[in-house]
Amino acid sequence: MKTLTILGFPLIFGLLILFTVPFQSCDPDDKDECDTCQIVYKPNIYIYPKENLQLTVSLNFPKGGKIIKSIPEYESGWNITVDNNGFIDKTYNYLFYESKQPDIWQHNEGWVVKKTNLKDFFSKNMTTYGFQGREIQDFIEYWIPKFTEFEFYEIYPQNSIIINDVIEIQFSKNPDNILRLFYVVKGMNELPSNNLTEPKIESFNREGFFTTEWGVIIE
């Protein structure tokens, strides 16, 4: 009896696997979870025009991603009115959102901070970056009570250049100056053996029409 040999069977089998195994991504239309994506928690966007201003603010995710929470409701963008004190729609002090996008955050520069020193650290660090007043107070009131599980925390700052690579922010009227800062925060109970390189912090110009934004990624 003759037997039929199927040449290239491993190749064909491999192609079948290739086309049947789903790819994971951060595409907003992808219903599957993304193992390589991370959530940015509670970014607050503060807006300070020189005069009362009607404004559209939108977020784009060039590497894939999506908004998962927002206040006020984001829909296809925020259409808002902001007074010269930064009060939005006579209701909000800031625009709030949370989003999921690829993990591209830097882990080469940062600080290691003891749990008991976190409040003082963030107050001084955010001031150095250019945040002021209620922006810092909002961060302290929300985040410090949440960082209690570990004795030490590695903190990696993500500047505007890094953030813009995955979350673009657009305004119908462009601000004169934009400050964006996310912190990647990782807790531990022992001091790490390696020393982190301390970042160089550039000063921020809070003049003209400007906006500030902070957020946190927890690892």
Beta-strand percentage range: 25-35%
Distance between the termini: 63 Å
The general outline is globular
Strand order of the largest sheet: 3-5-1-10-9-7-6
- Largest sheet entry: 7 strands, mixed
The Cα radius of gyration reads: 22 Å
Q: What is the count of distinct domains?
A: 1
**Helical proportion?**
10-25%
- Note the run of SSEs as H and E: HEEEEEEHHEHEEE
Summed over residues and divided by their number, the pLDDT gives a mean of 88
Structural class: alpha+beta
Given the structure, what is the number of helices?
4
Low-confidence regions: 1-24
DSSP, total strands:
10
Describe the protein.
The structure is a single chain. The protein has 219 residues and is of the alpha+beta class. It has one domain. The protein is 19% helix and 34% strand. It has four helices and ten strands; from the N terminus they run αββββββααβαβββ. The strands form two sheets. A seven-stranded mixed beta sheet has the order 3-5-1-10-9-7-6. The protein has a three-stranded antiparallel beta sheet with strand order 4-2-8. Helix 2 runs antiparallel to helix 3 (133-143). The longest helix is centred in the first third of the chain and has 12 residues, at 9-20. The radius of gyration is 22 Å and the shape is globular.
